[in-house]
Fold this protein.
Amino acid sequence: MEKERAPRNRTLVLSDEECLAYGRRCLDIGGEAALDSILDRTINADTLKVLALLPRAFVDLMVVDPPYNLDKDFNASSFRKMSHGGYRDYVESWFSGLLPLLKADASIYVCCDWRSSSAVFQVLDEHVTVRNRISWQREKGRGASSNWKNCVEDIWFATVGKEYCFNVEAVMMKRRVLAPYREGGVPKDWVDGADGRYRMTYPSNFWDDLSIPYWSMPENTDHPTQKPEKLLAKLVLASSRVGSVVFDPFLGSGTTSVVAKKLGRKYVGIEIDPLYCAWAEKRLADADLRKDIQGYADGVFWERNTSSQQKSGRKGTC
Ligand SMILES: C[S@@+](CC[C@H](N)C(=O)[O-])C[C@H]1O[C@@H](n2cnc3c(N)ncnc32)[C@H](O)[C@@H]1O
């Protein structure tokens, strides 16, 4: 049955005809695939079954957002919580197959929560160089009466080799200056700009400036674990260049590919569920018309709930 939605709800909804039409844009891999045939495409397949058919060493940046180790329904399929060892074996089963697809200077990000984080780390640590763990305070979480509410996710950052791309200048944070210190009457390490007093700071591995997509955001879909475009924008800008190939083997509603496209990268995504593939294709088509990424404007990431608009009293968009 159709969900009833508030008038200002901007969640993506497709008719049956649109689902079929966007679904037809996806790629169905029958045999060994050449690079040209998969670039800028969504592959509708079981990642574990098609990895061996993909080209070797074509990926500059891989973002992996697999099912976490908890009970979760994904439209037609579902994931069931396993033991720690069982989940580690599951991660190993796809990670070892993904490795040959990566270039020697590729970067890797793997998303997880506290329960799956150590299994993901163990597998990464066996195969590649783990460089950091980003903690994303996503705000929303299910309250619990006998435990701490979980509202943090981890994103492991690793690289295949010693050489890798990291464009720190592209992901600096613009922060409001709360205590504007001056030296000799001149602002010290901050700027008194038309859009307020701010300081550009190096990005840390604690991210509290982005929330999960919600109903009034145009990027929102009904995917149960959709990542925000702003989060992917940070990963893509920091760890790839214009024209790089960004790959996501658990694409979901398409966030990684959409952001890669908006930022001038090439993309390849694999998703097992045909409905999610159709949503991804619709979002990719929309990205031809709208390149904006909520919370990232004019090459700058603003901290949560601030933007240049707030200075003039209007509501921020982060
Ligand atoms: C955590 S979600 C990814 C969400 C995504 N980052 C987004 O922003 O929408 C994991 C996705 O992996 C898909 N999936 C699970 N097993 C898969 C497999 N073997 N092959 C391809 N996709 C799979 C699920 O259908 C689900 O959409």
The two ends are 32 Å apart (CA to CA). Residues 129 and 158 are 5 Å apart (CA to CA). Residues 308-318 have pLDDT under 50 and may be disordered.
